[in-house]
Amino acid sequence: MDKKTMTLGEFIIENQDSFQYTSGELSRLLNGLRLAAKVVNHEVNKAGLVDIIGAAGDTNIQGENQQKLDVMANEKFIQTLSKREIVCGIASEEEDDFISINSFDKQHQNKYIVLIDPLDGSSNIDVNVSVGTIFSIYRRVTPVGTPVTLEDFLQPGRNQVAAGYIVYGTSTMLVYTTGDGVNGFTLNPALGTFYLSHPDMEFPETGKIYSVNEGNYVHFPKGVKDYIKYCQEEEGDRPYISRYIGSLVSDFHRNMIKGGIYLYPKSSKAEEGKLRLLYECNPMAFLAEQANGKASDGFNPIMDIIPKELHQRVPFFCGSKKMVEKAEEFMAAKS
Ligand code: AHM
Ligand code: MG
Fold first, then answer.
1. From ligand 1's centre to the CA of 246, what distance in Å?
2. Is the Cα dihedral 170, 264, 301, 61 positive or negative?
3. Do residues 177 and 286 touch, judged by C-beta distance below 8 A?
4. Helices (H), the chain
5. Where is 230: in which H helix or E strand?
6. pLDDT greater than 90 at residue 105
7. Is residue 66 predicted with pLDDT exceeding 60?
8. What is the pLDDT of residue 108?
């Protein structure tokens, strides 16, 4: 079959045999995410038309204002995933605690855990800039037949069986991995169908883009400051180009296609960094490694971190392998 005409649904079925566990279940789970992505895409795209933008008046566990679309996206993903009798637990960046799913006729028989950031970069909604959804999928570690526990959610990123994101951009794309490379699908909005538009995505080994919120410069550790200065120096292929959307999904997506590095270091304002290990960094790290890139906390691979809490934050350096390695050199020299 011509890869370019392949739909996401066809791709999921065609590739399910390469998956090490009972493949049909993961396929149904991915199909659930595909459906929720279309629903959320529909709402995000009409955000400027109806009175659904703006703060919902609530704050999430991190004390940030929740936008109405965050709340809507959170609900849609949770609803869609909990109805499929595959997922036993969901944790969301927008929920204080994890949700245990117990389907009525299949008491605790489901095997999959989903962690989700339903609408990342939501401060960009009001100004019509791209936002995204990030998802991360694990097998439960506690016995089937018992309720899920925190232990099922606090697994290192290495245990992920699938991860991906949806970017609601100039076009809507779903990009995911099941540990066998990274593939990207673009939504044809007229038909409501995702087509394989970006097979076998890979970060270029090195690149010319650095993405960091330089407004925090004075608060960054010395290693990060030195690395930023290195990016700006006139030498060889430098200075690099600075590009920062402030939507992790979009910054990552661009850097994967063009070659670049994304940094959200710790700072004297945010001792642990800002991004969440479980909802943002681990899934992006899995995608990065599957796409020949690299993700670290500045010193060690993100996916080797043993999580201690659901909403844990971590410094994040991610992108083209050589660029991340260079940033790590600067960090090591100044630690
Ligand atoms: P969010 O989950 O509250 O949307 O925060 C995550 C976002 C990332 O998408 C983005 O890269 C970063 O926060 C931007 O933060 P800042 O505005 O501090 O640069
Ligand atoms: Mg987020």
1. 6
2. negative
3. yes
4. 8-14, 23-45, 68-82, 150-153, 222-232, 248-258, 282-290, 321-333
5. helix 222-232
6. no
7. no
8. 75
Q: Which residues keep their CB under 5 angstroms from ion ligand 2? A: 117, 120
**pTM for this entry:** 0.94
Query: Quick one: tokens of 284?
Result: 């992006």
pLDDT (tens digit, 9 = 90+) per residue, 277-318?
A: 999 999 999 999 999 999 999 999 999 999 999 999 999 999
Ligand 1 mean position to 222 CA, how many Å? 22
User: How far is residue 141's CA from residue 8's CA, in Å, rounded to a whole number?
Assistant: 29
The tokens 């989700």 sit on which residue?
116
State whether the Cα torsion 200-157-18-80 is positive or negative: negative
What domains lie within the chain, and their CATH numbers? 3-198 (3.30.540.10), 209-333 (3.40.190.80)
22 CA distance to ligand 2 middle (Å): 31
Distance CA 252, CA 256 (A): 6
The confidence score (pLDDT) of residue 3 equals 67
Q: Is the CB of 65 under 6 A from ligand 1?
A: no
Ligand 1 atom having least distance to the Cα of 132: 9
Give 159-176 pLDDT, tens digit per residue: 999 999 999 999 999 999
Is the torsion defined by CA of 216, 221, 225, 227 positive or negative? negative
